[in-house]
């Protein structure tokens, strides 16, 4: 749309002026140390241009945004057999909740809450060494972004491994229900390294093009699969904040505790926003606000 570049610069200025940043994730020490007063936004457009503002060249920890790529790669590997092990319903609970797992006998509600993502990672691992599954995933993301300079931040992975007791509990609990097929510690290590992938908003927006069905985007998944992943992002991508995000923004989105959000405007754009301070759902505070304003400006809501 007309004036998008100016709008994004203004958005960046407004975010800094408001200084209403929220608080970086506290439970992963390496993330807790990040300065919250940072903002970036990138919009990969249907015409092939990417329009950005703020710190769009700065790498951040994509964390749970990785779950979108793991889901796409796992579906590519084992297909719809995944759905016997993970559901497709919003959970209404926090990203790291264990509560529903007991009631629902070890089948997580969806592939984006931690429990469901651990099962999805387990499906991708598929009896291989973690390094081989991670290499496949990184290659998939690099191909999607058409950028080979995308890597795992080893410090973030180590930081999470040192403190990841909740995820360890989830993995072992899933194993007890026979819903992990690999050694739970191997699955867990793979999951934590996948979350520690670092990308810029330019790279992330570029990688999301395959989900937006943009002309010229690498064809890594079918249009039907992209539609279905978008549906899950809309209903489950922001955990217990998914309804509010759909109401305010009206786009499929996936958040991460590193402060990143990937949003898909089908046929129009792939959008990445980053600001490390979080709201009480564990989603980027300034990022959510920026998404709301961008949706108003562009009229890209799918509704
Ligand atoms: O598993 C964790 O706790 C983190 N590696 C990722 C969680 C996450 O990003 C949740 N998103 N809001």
UniProtKB/TrEMBL annotation:
<feature type="binding site">
    <location>
        <position position="191"/>
    </location>
    <ligand>
        <name>substrate</name>
    </ligand>
</feature>
<feature type="binding site">
    <location>
        <position position="160"/>
    </location>
    <ligand>
        <name>substrate</name>
    </ligand>
</feature>
<feature type="binding site">
    <location>
        <position position="239"/>
    </location>
    <ligand>
        <name>substrate</name>
    </ligand>
</feature>
<feature type="binding site">
    <location>
        <position position="167"/>
    </location>
    <ligand>
        <name>substrate</name>
    </ligand>
</feature>
<dbReference type="InterPro" id="IPR015868">
    <property type="entry name" value="Glutaminase"/>
</dbReference>
<feature type="binding site">
    <location>
        <position position="64"/>
    </location>
    <ligand>
        <name>substrate</name>
    </ligand>
</feature>
<protein>
    <recommendedName>
        <fullName>Glutaminase</fullName>
        <ecNumber>3.5.1.2</ecNumber>
    </recommendedName>
</protein>
<keyword id="KW-0378">Hydrolase</keyword>
<keyword id="KW-0007">Acetylation</keyword>
<dbReference type="GO" id="GO:0004359">
    <property type="term" value="F:glutaminase activity"/>
</dbReference>
<dbReference type="Pfam" id="PF04960">
    <property type="entry name" value="Glutaminase"/>
</dbReference>
<dbReference type="GO" id="GO:0006543">
    <property type="term" value="P:L-glutamine catabolic process"/>
</dbReference>
<comment type="similarity">
    <text>Belongs to the glutaminase family.</text>
</comment>
<dbReference type="InterPro" id="IPR012338">
    <property type="entry name" value="Beta-lactam/transpept-like"/>
</dbReference>
<comment type="subunit">
    <text>Homotetramer.</text>
</comment>
<dbReference type="GO" id="GO:0006537">
    <property type="term" value="P:glutamate biosynthetic process"/>
</dbReference>
<feature type="binding site">
    <location>
        <position position="114"/>
    </location>
    <ligand>
        <name>substrate</name>
    </ligand>
</feature>
<feature type="binding site">
    <location>
        <position position="257"/>
    </location>
    <ligand>
        <name>substrate</name>
    </ligand>
</feature>
């Amino acid at each position: 749309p007309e004036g998008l570049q100016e709008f994004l610069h203004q958005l960046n200025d407004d975010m800094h002026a408001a200084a209403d940043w929220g608080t970086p994730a506290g439970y992963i020490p390496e993330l807790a140390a990040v300065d919250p007063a940072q903002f970036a936004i990138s919009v990969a457009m249907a015409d092939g241009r990417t329009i950005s503002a703020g710190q769009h060249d700065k790498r951040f920890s994509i964390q749970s945004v990785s779950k979108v790529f793991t889901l796409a790669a796992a579906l590519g590997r084992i297909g719809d057999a995944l759905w016997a092990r993970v559901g497709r319903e919003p959970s209404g609970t926090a990203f790291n909740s264990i509560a529903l797992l007991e009631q629902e006998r070890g089948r997580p509600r969806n592939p984006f809450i931690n429990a469901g993502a651990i099962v999805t990672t387990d499906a991708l691992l598929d009896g291989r060494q973690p390094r081989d599954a991670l290499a496949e995933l990184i290659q998939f993301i690099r191909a999607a972004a058409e950028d080979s300079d995308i890597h795992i931040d080893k410090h973030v992975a180590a930081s999470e491994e040192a403190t990841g007791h909740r995820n360890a509990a989830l993995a072992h609990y899933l194993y007890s229900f026979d819903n992990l097929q690999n050694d739970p510690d191997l699955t867990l290590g793979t999951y934590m390294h996948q979350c520690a992938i670092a990308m810029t908003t330019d790279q992330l927006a570029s990688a999301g093009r395959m989900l937006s069905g943009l002309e010229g985007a690498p064809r890594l998944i079918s249009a039907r699969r992209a539609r279905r992943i978008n549906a899950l992002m809309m209903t489950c991508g922001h955990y217990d904040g998914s309804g509010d995000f759909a109401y305010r923004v009206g786009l499929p989105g996936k958040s991460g505790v590193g402060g990143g959000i990937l949003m898909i405007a089908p046929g129009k754009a792939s959008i990445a926003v980053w600001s490390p301070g979080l709201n009480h759902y564990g989603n980027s505070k300034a990022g959510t606000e920026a998404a709301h304003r961008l949706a108003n400006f562009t009229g890209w809501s799918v509704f």
